[in-house]
Design goal:
Mean pLDDT: 91
Low-confidence stretches: none
Number of strands: 8
Distance between the termini: 34 Å
Structural class: alpha+beta
Largest sheet: 3 strands, antiparallel
CATH topology of the largest domain: Beta-clip-like
CATH class of the largest domain: Mainly Beta
Number of helices: 2
CATH superfamily of the largest domain: SET domain
Number of domains: 2
Helix content: 10-25%
Order of helices and strands: EEEEHEEEEH
Shape: globular
């Protein structure tokens, strides 16, 4: 898949992931890759402010892309997050197959579009809770 990283269309999101070629509905855009750790190790990293790119599969298997900026899946943003832009919607979902995670196109995606993936309601509820209670990072 031909993917590039550049400034996201979402405010305060930093970088985003874009496709340079069309992607068909149902295709895997790419695999979410990073260091494989367990939940206990991830909790340690949170305390050290070395978190933010975790994909939780189970307590024994988490994919942490914090220290692996070469893996592009970490740059896919959620259009339904805190910084929404009218007209932008998620065009992908995460799909877990065994112990792997993939970004899956839920509709045809045109060349040049930003890849937006659903982080889930639970993820955003946690972010809002942390902001409300002063746990967010600056």
């Amino acid at each position: 898949m031909a993917l590039i990283v550049k400034k996201s269309q979402l405010p305060n999101s930093g970088k985003g992931l874009y496709t340079t070629k069309p992607i068909k509905k149902g295709e895997h855009v790419l695999e979410y890759l990073g260091e494989i750790i367990n939940w206990k190790e991830y909790e340690k990293r949170v305390k050290e402010n070395k978190d933010g790119y975790l994909f939780f599969i189970s307590n024994k298997r988490c994919i942490d892309a914090y220290s692996t900026p070469q893996h592009k899946a970490r740059y896919a943003n959620d259009a339904a997050g805190l910084g929404r832009v009218k007209g932008l919607k998620n065009n992908c979902d995460y799909e877990i197959i065994g112990d792997q995670c993939f970004i899956l196109a839920k509709r045809d995606i045109a060349a040049g579009e930003e890849i937006f993936v659903n982080y889930t309601k639970e993820y955003w509820d946690c972010v809002r809770y942390n902001i409300k209670h002063g746990f967010h990072k600056k």
